[in-house]
Write a structure and sequence with these properties.
Structural class: alpha/beta
Strand content: 25-35%
Shape: elongated
Number of strands: 7
Radius of gyration: 17 Å
Number of domains: 1
Length: about 100
């Protein structure tokens, strides 16, 4: 019985890894060096989210307005082991 309980606990921990719903990452974004909401890797292919930096109306997935204060999300750019991967685009932002 103990082994079953231990096995179930291990399986729960293995499958409890939360994936980020990147379709909700839009709006006012602040780039930070510490204490981010999300860590992202900037890539040129196989991205999770295509990002377009805009000056106003960041109202769809992947549309980011870069701000210095009062952000919706704080983002830290990392080289590896980010929460998700982004690619900067000039048109057609969104989930890939």
């Amino acid at each position: 019985m103990k082994y079953i309980v231990v096995f179930l606990m291990m399986m729960t921990l293995a499958y409890s890894e939360t994936k980020v719903d990147v379709s909700r990452i839009y709006g006012k974004i602040q780039y930070v060096e510490a204490f981010p909401d999300y860590k992202v890797e900037v890539v040129s292919a196989f991205e999770d989210l295509s990002v377009q930096e805009v000056n106003s109306f960041p109202d769809k997935a992947g549309m980011w307005q870069i701000v210095d204060s009062f952000p919706d999300f704080k983002i830290q750019k990392v080289k590896a082991f980010g929460d998700f991967k982004i690619k900067y685009v000039d048109a057609f932002p969104g989930v890939k």
